[in-house]
Automatic annotation (TrEMBL), chain A:
Keywords: Endoplasmic reticulum, ER-Golgi transport, Golgi apparatus, Transport
Origin superkingdom: Eukaryota
Family listed: Belongs to the TRAPP small subunits family. BET3 subfamily.
Annotated GO CC locations: cis-Golgi network membrane; cytosol; endoplasmic reticulum; TRAPP complex
SUPFAM superfamilies in the cross-refs: Ligand-binding domain in the NO signalling and Golgi transport
Role, per record: May play a role in vesicular transport from endoplasmic reticulum to Golgi.
UniProt-recorded name of the protein: Trafficking protein particle complex subunit
Quaternary organization: Homodimer.
Protein location: Endoplasmic reticulum; Golgi apparatus, cis-Golgi network
GO biological process: endoplasmic reticulum to Golgi vesicle-mediated transport; intra-Golgi vesicle-mediated transport
Major site of localization recorded for this protein: endoplasmic reticulum
Length: 186, 195
């Protein structure tokens, strides 16, 4: 019998197949280096990383829903918590926290202190404008879009730029009502 | 610019203690990322050979070079193998174990050529969720792993041509992947001299 109610991020992570984070880290590094060589402009690399993340996000949401047993979130606050506590844990093995809510509950920050993407990484002077982890913002944006939420995501803090944590600001732009491709009586 | 004027946690990456390498991420996270690597590189090439040889292999090479450095430092007290069989078993055991969580299924010497060795894996991690479209012929995403192997070997002073091939296995639906290593002449000459 499937478990009732959402499973904790730890429980899911303990049960999925895992790989060494260093393989993941170094592979991501290889991707970023390829992009820097191919595209030359740091801005273009940021865009491409975000696009790759988006591509991942729109696929990853299926696995997330299938394994987490999360039901519909009542509001955006719950959504953000679920991403931070279950989503990040389930895929990257790290937990994030949610802070800095605005008054109307549509904008918040997801803060990551531990981030497997950036081990061994240091930004050279020529790459100061690079959002090295921009793939993550793409993933979150893509995944949320698949559950009817249009968001805008930006980096507020970045440890590679000297900050004390990674902070991703998630702003809910609008909730797209679900459209059914079929009529009720069919 | 963000971050300017703030104190960095570590003034540079070398001050940071080296992790023990026990951290893990989910296999899906890696599979998603790898799939993006392949898809992106597909947009950058005209043919399969280019995709394998100059794109995926290059990406892997960069990983291999770093893995060698990391493992020599962390696991081998800054020593590295200098003999052919030593470095091969280092790749087959140590490198494989760290990257893929297991020792490779087999390491064999080529029967036809003195300079060829093969590392085979029944189900190579990077090929787990990959199916090759018919029109892509013999394309093998293992080229990435071949690149890693070449990166490790080259960095250790054993230049070689490394390629990935599917080899059908009797009674199995999916072929295994063989990483074929062909060492450069100088490597064999040196090896002979060392006796």
């Amino acid at each position: 019998m499937p478990p009732v109610g959402p499973r904790s991020g730890d429980a899911i992570f303990a049960n999925v197949e895992r790989v060494n984070a260093e393989l993941f880290t170094l592979t991501y590094g290889a991707i970023v280096r390829q992009l820097l060589t191919d595209l030359e402009e740091v801005e273009e690399v940021n865009k491409q990383l975000d696009q790759m993340g988006y591509n991942i996000g729109i696929r990853l949401i299926d696995e997330f829903l299938a394994k987490s047993n999360v039901s519909r979130c009542v509001d955006f606050k719950e959504t953000a918590e679920v991403i931070a506590k279950i989503g990040f844990k389930m895929f990257l093995g790290v937990t994030a926290s949610v802070t800095n809510w605005d008054a109307d509950g549509t904008c918040c920050s997801i803060v990551l202190e531990d981030n497997p993407l950036v081990d061994f990484v240091e930004l050279p002077d020529t790459c100061q404008g690079l959002y090295y982890c921009n793939i993550l913002s793409g993933v979150v944006r893509g995944a949320l879009e698949m559950v009817s939420m249009k968001t805008e995501i930006s980096w507020i803090r970045d440890m590679l730029r000297g900050d004390d944590a990674f902070e991703l600001q998630v702003k809910l732009l609008k909730q797209v009502p679900e459209e059914y491709p079929y009529k009720d009586d069919e | 610019m963000i971050g300017v004027g703030k104190i960095k946690q570590y003034s540079n990456v070398l001050d940071k203690p080296l992790s023990k390498g026990k951290q893990e991420v989910s296999l899906s996270a890696f599979a998603f990322l790898f799939s993006e690597l392949v898809q992106y590189n597909q947009t950058q090439v005209d043919n399969i050979a280019e995709l394998e040889r100059s794109r995926l292999e290059d990406a892997g090479y960069a990983v291999g070079a770093r893995v060698l450095e990391l493992l020599c430092h962390r696991d081998k007290g800054n020593r590295r193998e200098t003999r052919l069989l030593g470095i091969l078993s280092f790749v087959h055991s140590t490198v494989w174990k760290v990257l893929f969580g297991k020792v490779a299924d087999s390491l064999e010497k080529g029967t036809e050529h003195e300079d060829e060795y093969m590392i085979s894996e029944k189900e190579l991690l990077v090929n787990r969720f990959i199916s090759i479209p018919k029109d892509m012929g013999t394309f093998n995403c293992g080229a990435f792993v071949a690149g890693i192997v070449r990166g490790v070997l080259d960095g250790a002073g054993f230049p070689a041509v490394v390629t990935a091939h599917f080899v059908p296995v009797e009674g199995q639906q999916r072929p295994r992947t063989t990483i074929l290593i062909k060492f450069a002449e100088e490597v064999l000459r040196r090896e002979a001299r060392l006796g």
